[in-house]
Write a structure and sequence with these properties.
The structure is a single chain. It contains twelve helices and 18 strands. It has 356 residues and is of the alpha/beta class. Helix 4 (104-111) links the parallel strand 4 and strand 5 (115-117). It is globular, with a radius of gyration of 22 Å.
């Protein structure tokens, strides 16, 4: 199952709205087939493993990180494929919460006389597919908030200079994070200041993340990097119902998708925005926005994980802070993330923290 989970991780960022699943077929103590969900969500992991195993699948044990699907979608049910291949046993980590499955896959297998063992490495499988599970059960994507700051918590000097607080190893890790998420999201302030393209570079990515811009009044220029490349890699712009018509038309000519989003107190309604993105199939979003978006996401309780890059430099209080105002009066109500991973990236430190 540990091997199946490592295979499943290869699908993160390029299989949405499907879950990232891994499957290992074992017969007589030997691996006879391996598979993971392919880009775009199909073929499914079980099908790939069965294709590789061929006739050796008969009598084998299938280790699958998620309950095999039991419904007819764009592909036949994987439970049926395992039954047809005459595997003798199926071991799973998680029950699929999708109402179209939700135990039916396990039931189909047992009805066919196949032994089923559930709940193997459930915690690890839950962490791996946290985005898919959150989207199905709560209608929201898993959100990773990425911050890069100096030792004293600044993201730029007073004049806005920020290149580079962290070194090349850290910047490469950022691209790896992008590759493992369905989408990368920034606000209009970051877009206007940095003119980013938000793509994955130099890692041989098969799929590029959706690039999301939160731009209430469509202030970012269609002539920007995002606008010039919108037909090559998707750009989704969430904007207010009151955004100017001229700006909408200009962005539409670039090929970007415009998504009208409700407002609250003069800002885009972030919970509503993320619900819309989940409805469109996104399961994992990496937020690379500035301090304002970071604070708004934290205050709204929408951040699941913090990815922190700390550079070995001191900038001073006149620099730009990594986090905007959280409107806290006492430490008792301050968010207290739980660190679960930390290591060096060249001269910098990378750490991961759970917020929920």
């Amino acid at each position: 199952m540990a091997h199946a989970l490592r295979l499943a991780a290869r699908g993160l960022g390029n299989v949405w709205p499907n879950p990232a699943v891994g499957c290992v077929l074992v017969r007589d103590g030997l691996i006879v087939g391996r598979g993971w969900t392919q880009p775009g969500g199909r073929p499914h992991a079980e099908v790939r493993a069965l294709q590789q195993a061929g006739p050796l699948a008969e009598g084998a044990t299938a280790y699958v990180t998620l309950e095999p699907c039991a419904h007819h979608g764009q592909t036949p049910p994987c439970a049926e494929a395992l039954i047809a291949a005459k595997v003798s046993r199926v071991v799973t980590a998680l029950t699929d919460p999708d109402p179209r499955v939700a135990g039916r896959g396990h039931q189909m297998l047992r009805a066919a006389g196949i032994a089923v063992t559930e709940g193997v490495m459930t915690a690890e499988a839950t962490q791996l597919n946290a985005g898919f599970l959150k989207r199905v059960t709560r209608g929201l994507p898993f959100v990773t908030l990425k911050l890069a700051a100096s030792l004293d918590g600044r993201t730029a000097t007073a004049t806005g200079e920020s290149r580079w607080i962290t070194g090349p190893e850290a910047r490469r890790k950022v691209h790896a994070l992008r590759m493992s998420h369905d989408a990368v999201m920034v606000g209009s302030g970051t877009a206007l200041a940095d003119d980013p393209d938000l793509t994955v570079r130099d890692l041989g990515a098969q799929c590029q993340p959706v690039r999301i811009l939160l731009d209430r009044m469509l202030k970012h220029a269609p002539q920007s990097r995002l606008g010039r490349t919108a037909r090559e890699h998707p750009v989704w712009i969430l904007h207010s119902p009151t955004a100017p018509d001229a700006a909408r038309k200009a962005w539409e000519t670039t090929g970007a998708a415009l998504i009208e989003t409700p407002e609250t107190s003069g800002h885009l309604d972030l919970p509503a925005a993320l619900q819309t993105l989940a409805h469109k199939g996104l399961t994992r979003i990496l937020s690379e926005g500035g301090s304002t978006i970071a604070a708004a996401l934290v205050k709204s309780g929408l951040v699941d994980e913090l990815a922190m890059f700390t550079g070995g430099v001191l900038i001073g209080s006149e620099g730009h802070p990594a986090m905007g105002a959280l409107d806290l009066d006492t430490l008792a109500v301050a968010p207290r993330p739980i660190q679960f991973e930390t290591y060096s990236l060249g001269p910098d430190i990378f750490s991961r923290w759970k917020l929920r």
